[in-house]
Amino acid sequence: MPYTKEEDTRKVQTAVIGRAESDWPVFLPYDHDDFDRFMGGRTRDDFYCGVLLGGCGKRLSPKRYTDKKCHFAHRPPVHCRRTETGEDSADHLYIGRAIADWLKQQGQRAVQPVYKPKGHQVRDAVDVSYGTGRRLIRVQLARRSKREWEEADTELRVRHSELDWLFGPDSLLANWQIERQGYALRVQCWSLGVTRAVEIGTQFPDRPVEWTSLSECTLTPEGIVTPSLLHTADGIVPRHAAGPVEPAHPLSGLPLTPASVLITDATSAHTTDAHHWFNVSLRVNARLSLPAHADSPDRQHAYLPVDAVLSLDSDGTWLIKASALQLVGTYPADGPMGRATPPTNTHDPSPEKHPLPSDAELVASFRKTLENTARSKNVVTTATLCKGASLHGQTLSVDRWRELLLQVEQPRTPGKPVLSSLIKGRDGGPAPFFKQILHGLGWTKGFSDAELLDIWNRERGRVHAAYSRSSRVNSPSRLGHEASRRPPIRIERKEAESRAVFDALLDLTHEAKQAGDLDAYEQNLFLAEQAAPSTDAHETLRDLTDWLVNQRADELYESWERLSTLVDEINRDGDDLHPDQLRLALRSANDLAEELGGDLAAEERHDIARWQRHLERMTERLTLSQIRGLAVAVRVALRQSAREGRTTTWGELALRIGAPLAALHPDDKIAILVEADRETPDDRPPLSALVTTHGGDRPHPLYQQILFNLDRIAPPPEALFMHWRMALRRHSELR
After folding, report:
1. Pair (183, 280) in one structural domain
2. How far, in Å, are 15, 58, 61, 115 from residue 24 at the CA level?
3. Co-location of 408 and 324 in the same domain
4. What tens digit of pLDDT does each residue of 328-338 get?
5. What does the H/E/C string look like for 27-76?
6. 237 with 105, same domain?
7. Domain span at residue 27?
8. Do 295 and 378 belong together in one domain?
9. pLDDT digits over 453-464, tens only?
């Protein structure tokens, strides 16, 4: 029987245990030596072609072979349409179970994996919810466009308070996650004995993925922390970018708690008389470790350790490591057993040590940082803004942020992009005060979380587009904030003549605006600016300039959106496109990227270049139809050699069929010989054994790989020569 008839139905490497709907996967190793170990404690009736594998739900029988790969086989009659049967076909189940087990080890409850989330097919994605469904880990395995991913992200964040993304090893979405939060988490499986091991990878820009086991990761309120990441007060940051950790010095013998149990009434003002909360302190012998730059604590004060970690030292003493101490109260004269008295200011350092900058200084610093961030097409955190403004560890309330950032947005004109959209929160989305800023700018509509995220993404793109054009047109900062301060140019004409020239230029500017001719509008506006006779005229020009900047920003943003959509489609469908279709799509994308310039289209240019390299490789390799056409000719030539009782070489085959076989890629050579032997019965020697080295005394170097692909015995290297000689002998006997 021809081998090709059994290829798709016999070589099933994965199954589930117990029942058809089970999510307990198993992987049947290829080698017969591992078969007995795999079957230990199991029966041949334990395995199913699982529904969660995309299978038929029928029982599978494990098959042990010594001359070919071990695999599962359906019990007849077979009516299964399962498409994925290889060793990685159950990876989504391995990943879901591994994450669920890890979450339970992290102390989480109500852990629930879902292998076919709403709107997805099996193996597309895995959802693992926990915390009574409030928190979610989404594992994205199938390819999706950037737009589809952002829509899914918005929808999931509406339903869940916390969301973490893991991406499969081939997912391109990780690149956009890196752009959003500075890193992305990947997940992969690899065969380890009779199972599949799950690994988590951390990906940073321009660095290889750093892989580790799930057991090395921890779960924090801000998300998953791998050994390559660091959990700080400002959120999760790359460990390599956090800077060197300053040495800590222990303060031995520091009494951290009273000498006996202390119970203090901590009743909230919002509770009733029937409900009280109590703070309970127990005596602990411990040492406190702080960074070298930290101030030493005073015994007369009470402190709260910041980012504290408790561990048991080698001498049996508890060690508390903290990044800083926050003053929370003072002790009375009778010692630490008394009640702590809160200080007048528990958050801000004393004005004598770190005087607060004025509002004008804060606004100027925030504006400068945001404009620099816009020019680099990036986003920023509140911690970075505070650092740039010399706010030494002090925190600002949401209302305070709103008050200062509304001043940053001034002067405000209709259609001007919102500069504060460059500030991201700890979850990678909008800052918590972004909605209040929009309302303060006159956005009266109420927003859902999904609508707010959409506005934030759109405004961020408009800001990037406006500031990235600064090399070709006047920068928004200069046009929006300096035009009113620029002194009028001295002109020697009379005031009346100057006003007439200015008015004429304004008329031409308005006509260009009505006609939609931005180039003429910009030229006339520039001339009017030079002829402006007074400060009042500059006030008029400022509004016209803001309109031009917004139009140019919208124009660029629309072009960028078209480019982004086109690149998304190429990333999603590129592998399925004909080379001519892919070439045309890449040409259109490259034209748009040239129009936008290097900075704004940097990410898209990276994808375009990658696909162009892929297209070049495609044109160098044979298509499937070409491989099959050459295989037919090679099969005829090899059968002729078998009848003549002699071997042949690649060069001789090339001469006989009139094709340049010797210059082909090794994978294409293997594919041709495998196709040539598809019709060779299993009880006959393969025709590919007749292809030898130039001297004819050795099998071709690809011979062992061809045997493996044909599912025939692939002997070890030391036995390959004898196996080849036996195949030639069988050919001579069958002549």
Report:
1. no
2. 8, 15, 17, 12
3. no
4. 544 443 444 34
5. ECCCCHHHHHHHHCCCCCCCEECCHHHCCCCCEEEEECCCCCCCEEEECC
6. yes
7. 3-74
8. no
9. 878 888 888 888
